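Ticket opened by: R.M.
Priority: normal
Category: complex prediction / small molecule

The reporter submitted a protein together with fe (ii) ion and asked that the result be attached to this ticket for the collaborator who will pick it up next week. Submitted input follows.
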Amino acid sequence: MKLTTSQNKKIEAWAKRMYRKNNDPYHNFGHAFFVSKMAAYIAKKEGAKVEVCRVAGLLHDLAPKTRGKPHGEKSAILVRKYLTGLKLNNVLINDACMAIEFHDSARRHLAKTLEGKIIFEADKLDCFGPVGLIREYGDLLKIGFSHDRALNTTLDYLKNNNPKYSTKTGNKIKNELRKFNKYFLRVYNKYHR
Ligand SMILES: [Fe+2]
Ligand SMILES: [Fe+2]
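Result attached by the on-call engineer:
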């Protein structure tokens, strides 16, 4: 079931307002838009529900986030309320909210639908490659790490952050982005160690 242009415009405007209010540089509309786009792409390739993935991707981070703490459940409550008010199809609301609810790393094992797995994978794609590097380092500075400590923690992160993906398409993109991590670490170890 495809959403109308007017429904899409309303959802997008609401998401922009909510992300702006959270004032979190890493969980903002830009990140949500990337996740939405990647999730829809993976869904198309994997035969999953594209519209569910697109909407869930755009709205998955709406509840404010504290580093390391799950916020999927709170986001899903906000999204269910808003989408019900827009009178969207109930199946779409349920599918999207279930994917949002279990997108946090700590609760990903509870995401049993293909759409849920795709939202987790699309979300985490922003944690590899150049953006993953910038996000991790910046976030550590934000919570008070010194440059040296943030740098060393980020290097470990680039090396070890490799969650298991279950879709073929997600894996392919993840591996491509992780090539950047490997290259970055190789150059860093050659000249900066
Ligand atoms: Fe999140
Ligand atoms: Fe996210």
